[in-house]
Give the backbone structure.
Amino acid sequence: MRDRRASRPSRDRSYGSEQARAGQEAGMAAHYGDGSATSPIEKNRLGTAALIAGIVAMLASFLPVIIYLPIGVLSTAGALVLGIMALRAIAAGQANNRAAAMVGLVLGVVGLLWFALSVFALAVLSSGG
């Protein structure tokens, strides 16, 4: 009886090996992590940063107004700008974390409204009215 395994050529059955081999034979480079393509994960950081900035803006709103103003302005502006940038990256197909970007943007808008209310209240209180 003849051994069937001896007559077959050995094959590398690792994931993607046939596609990579076919691409290399055709003169194309394999794009499995060589850094040549922009991954969605790199742009997802914008949405995550917007979410974190929005959370910081909301947490800072519990601080006294004098402390809140510098922290609130920076975190609110960061949440708004990063949220818009993340939504643009999502629209371009470069990112996929729409929920984090939207929540960060909404928290930025709420932070902006809270900041305006704080400034208005501070102005009213300081005028003695």
Notes: Residues 28-32 have pLDDT under 50 and may be disordered. The radius of gyration is 26 Å. The chain has five helices and no strands.
